[in-house]
Amino acid sequence: MSDIDLTTRAIEPPRLPRLEHQTFEIRALKSGLLTWLTWIAAGLAAIPLLSVIYMLIFKGGSRLFSSSIGEVLTGLPPAGFEMGGGIGPALVGTLVMVGIGALISIPIGILAAIYLGVLEPSSRISTNARFLAKVLTGFPSILAGVFVYAVIVIHFGYSAMAGGIALAVLMLPTVLLAAEEAMSQVPQRMKDAAYGMGCTRTQVILKVVLPTGLTGILTGVMLAIAGAAGESAPLLFTALFSNYYISELNEPTASLSILIYNFSGMPFQNQIELAWTASLALVLIVLMFNILARILGRSKY
Amino acid sequence: MNATAEALFVAEPFQASGDVVIDCKVDKIFYGDFLAVRDSIVPIEKHKITGFIGPSGCGKSTVLRSLNRMNDLIQVFRFEGNVMYHGQDIYAKKVDPVVVRRYIGMVFQQPNPFSMSIYDNVAFGLRLNRFKGDVEERVEKALRSAALWNEVKDKLKNSGLSLSGGQQQRLCIARAIATEPDVLLMDEPCSALDPIATRQVEELMLELKEHYTLAMVTHNMQQATRVADTTAFFSVDISQGGRTGYLVEMGPTRQIFEDPREQLTKEYISGEFS
Ligand SMILES: Nc1ncnc2c1ncn2[C@@H]1O[C@H](COP(=O)(O)OP(=O)(O)OP(=O)(O)O)[C@@H](O)[C@H]1O
Ligand SMILES: [Mg+2]
């Protein structure tokens, strides 16, 4: 008959696998070590950021978050041994010049992005323009100031307008590249759907491509604004400084960043304190635009 | 006699029994230098569903998209022949393709709702055409005819992209019929859908043909037998060195599937069914 023995097992059943954590195995030790290393590196990277914010709040907060906040935000900068005073003209000047920069760079940036992202994505002009825009994002900001100085300031003098134009030069590539990216992300089948409904090319762009890419475009715009608000170098050559509120766009104009630069080097305690206050105010403005970018960046659909 | 004297096969023209809404006569369709389709006469009858079948790459989509000039968006595309729609050649010089597409709508293979609310998706075409009447009423009507109303009536403000694939496709159909076009072209409208959603879309098509004229590309033979009144069978001709599509046979669906005239049709259909 059959000589297969069914009573003894020919093969040992496998030992039960060990599924618990093996804390002292080499693999586990390595993994733990690396995890710790990344934690430490992250902590080190956060130190400068946190200490700057701490210093700003510590040194600038005393004037900003106190009963004199009204005077600080609206008052004129003090001269010499004067006490009190504020950063009013610089605050308004920064907002006005960033506003001018936005008014110039946003429409041009978005229109150019429509050309690059939707109309002619792969033409020679587009490829070159895209490359130049990328180069411009890494452009030292002081050169934007020098450029506007040579083109405008030499002929018309220092002014808020020149400062705004210098900021626009810096904002343009950021707006352009973000808007192009956002619009080229709009899927072709969505555009096909619009053409299939009987949309003209203009309608496809206005009703489908722009609204669909809007959140991405707004994020780019807000980041450009936040970046421009903190710039000082381009304003040195273009807007200069002023101790009074801006009344016309063709006069020298104060800005927070230049005020910080001027006052922090002065031998007067009051001015140094104001420089800290202005720094804190500037950081808060930049932060506000960044948060706005995040909120607007959340897609509705 | 030389070798070229061997005439190319050309299908016998299909004699439509009813009104012909779109009379499509293709001489040649090119993509650049590539001859994609040749010599095909495809009449689309009023209030009927015309199905296009055939192997992949035979030019079904190309012919269908030629019927509302969707192919104009492809730069290398060139159409020779004519497409008569209510007595006008839609390829005539003075014709605006944008206007053509408002009368001859399209539903695509992949559901493609806009990134807007469900309501706005359906209202899109109405707003585009500056519709003066009651938009809300028309949106509801379109969603009801697309058999979607009950599923979405409580969430019209939600994103069109939040729906399931089958619901999205029915939303696209609702969007296409909201403006009450004359003809609806559908390129494999069910290929992204599961069997249940496919059935729903098919039933919907059978209802829609009461009011509209439909033309549909499908890879699914059973689907063609279920919904198409008339079927056009295309094939690819590789004998000339290229891969040129052409119409082999067109006729009532029953005749095409039960008693095809051409050997090629017989082979294709039996191959698909067995
Ligand atoms: N945009 C295009 N540019 C160049 N050639 C194209 C283009 N679209 C289609 N073709 C070619 O035209 C021929 C017919 O294509 P078409 O998409 O009409 O086929 P089809 O019958 O719809 O195939 P399927 O069943 O796979 O969808 C194919 O050989 C294809 O390669
Ligand atoms: Mg196809």
Question: What's the arrangement of secondary structure elements?
Answer:
The complex is a heterodimer of chains A (301) and B (274).
Chain A: H1 26-64, H2 69-74, H3 88-119, H4 124-137, H5 141-156, H6 160-184, H7 188-196, H8 201-229, H9 233-236, H10 256-264, H11 269-297
Chain B: E1 20-31, E2 34-45, E3 49-53, H1 60-66, E4 77-85, E5 88-89, H2 97-103, E6 104-107, H3 118-128, H4 135-145, H5 149-152, H6 165-178, E7 183-187, H7 195-208, E8 213-217, H8 221-227, E9 230-237, E10 244-252, H9 253-258, H10 263-273
Parallel strand pairs in B: 2-10, 3-8, 3-9, 6-7, 7-8
Antiparallel strand pairs in B: 1-2, 1-4, 4-5, 9-10
Helix pairs in contact in B: 3-4, 3-6, 4-6
Structure notes:
Chain B: Its EC number is 3.6.3.27. Chain B: Keywords: ATP-binding, Hydrolase, Nucleotide-binding, Phosphate transport, Transport. Chain B: InterPro entries: AAA+_ATPase, ABC_transporter-like_ATP-bd, ABC_transporter-like_CS, P-loop_NTPase, PstB-like. The complex is a heterodimer of chains A (about 300) and B (about 270). The model of chain A has no long low-confidence stretch (mean pLDDT about 90). Helix content of chain A is about 70%, strand content about 0%. In chain A, helix 4 (about 125-135) packs across helix 6 (about 160-185) and helix 5 (about 140-155) packs across helix 6 (about 160-185). Chain A is an all-alpha fold and about 300 residues long. Chain A has a domain at about 90-295: MetI-like (MetI-like fold, Orthogonal Bundle), CATH 1.10.3720. Chain A has helices at about 25-65, 70-75, 90-120, 125-135, 140-155, 160-185, 190-195, 200-230, 235, 255-265, 270-295. With about 270 residues, chain B is α/β, with parallel strands linked by helices. Chain B has one domain: Rossmann fold (3-Layer(aba) Sandwich), CATH 3.40.50.300. Helices cover about 35% and strands about 25% of the residues of chain B. Chain B has a 10-stranded mixed sheet, with helices on both faces. In chain B, helix 3 (about 120-130) packs across helix 4 (about 135-145). Chains A and B meet through helix 7 and helix 8 of A and helix 2, helix 3 and helix 6 of B. Bound molecules: adenosine-5'-triphosphate and magnesium ion. Adenosine-5'-triphosphate binds near residues 62, 74, 243 and 245 of chain B.
